[in-house]
Amino acid sequence: MREVLLEVRDLAKSYGKRRAVDGVSFHVRRGQTVGLLGPNGAGKSTTVGIIAGILDADAGEVLLDGQPAGTRHHDTRRRIGLVPQDLALYDDLPAVENLKLFGALYGLKNAALAARCAAVLELVGLADRARDRPATFSGGMKRRLNIAAALLHEPALLILDEPTVGVDPQSRNAIFDTLAALQRAGTALVYTSHYMEEVERLADHIVIIDHGRVLADESPAALYARLPARAALHVDLAEALSGELAGELARLPGVAGLLGEGPAWDVRLQDSTQAIAVLDWLRDRGQVPVHFATARARLEEVFLDLTGRSLRD
Ligand code: ADP
């Protein structure tokens, strides 16, 4: 097990009477990618703002390599890069000049600054656009430039707040490629999202947060194992299924639920291999499927299970 890099303990923060973060704890190991998942308003931005040292917590602590982080701890703060949701770029200044401004804030100068600018532009796939102005960039390219800015000082931990919001699909893939390259280079990542599939794509650990509280803190595989039904079989039969047979089908071993009517049914299964037994069972009763398809249950259903509502409610 890799060492703990970031430790977040019992963070709390209110805005007036609204408790945005209500006792959030989790940790990030060296080189690990943690997806912070929750619906809008769950408290993700507030949590990462506190970790990155741009917001003060009312209670709790953040430790990086055992050292306190936060607004007053500049040395630790410097080791954390934040890509905020709102872009901070000068639209009329060439991309590389934007980076030089950011680099100067981190105390980088001359050849070292130029080398870092070139390296981060390469990493985010914008090396050939270095002299172009962000005004001419797509939303996704601007976001990639913002990611580059947060990487100039080679942070041990990079935090990205909803990095794909408002981004076209092509740039979204480019952002994921950049994150994968950072993973290979050993940078620890925390990224927030309200899309389970985005978090599933790269995260080796998922922290689900809602109403400022942590509801789950597990690997994707462990979350997946929590699902009561991990697969679904959709069947269209030649004829309607009788109520009696539907009742029997619902009680078959391995069947976790049944939805449908007439000839069209969705059978929720504990395991996809049970689809074969269900199809055999139907055939033995003279029920001919004219079409069938299986699908893996989506991890998003874990959220539904935990909160009783969908992520995008
Ligand atoms: P998320 O990033 O998950 O969407 P936020 O951390 O932005 O969640 O917000 C958590 C809660 O705190 C929400 O109810 C939001 O309306 C409220 N909130 C966030 N920022 C402020 C602020 N600056 N002033 C007042 N309320 C805020």
Overview of this structure, please?
Keywords: ATP-binding, Cell membrane, Membrane, Nucleotide-binding. This is ABC transporter ATP-binding protein. Pfam families: ABC_tran (PF00005). Residues 6-236 form the ABC transporter domain. GO terms for molecular function: ATP binding; ATP hydrolysis activity. It is built from eleven helices and 14 strands. A six-stranded mixed β-sheet has the order 6-7-8-3-9-10, with helices on both faces. It has a four-stranded antiparallel β-sheet with strand order 2-1-4-5, with helices on one face. The chain has a four-stranded antiparallel β-sheet with strand order 12-13-11-14, with helices on one face. α3 (95-105) packs across α4 (110-123) and α4 (110-123) crosses α5. 34% of the residues lie in helices and 29% in strands. It folds into two domains: 4-222, 3-Layer(aba) Sandwich (Rossmann fold), CATH 3.40.50.300; 231-296, Alpha-Beta Plaits (2-Layer Sandwich), CATH 3.30.70. The chain has 313 residues and is an alpha/beta fold. The mean pLDDT is 92. The protein is elongated, with a radius of gyration of 24 Å. The chain has helices at 44-51, 74-77, 95-105, 110-123, 139-151, 169-184, 196-202, 220-225, 243-250, 274-284, 300-307; strands at 4-15, 18-29, 33-37, 59-64, 67-68, 80-83, 157-161, 188-193, 205-210, 213-218, 231-237, 255-261, 264-269, 289-296. β1 (4-15) and β2 (18-29) form a beta hairpin. Adenosine-5'-diphosphate binds next to β2 and α1.
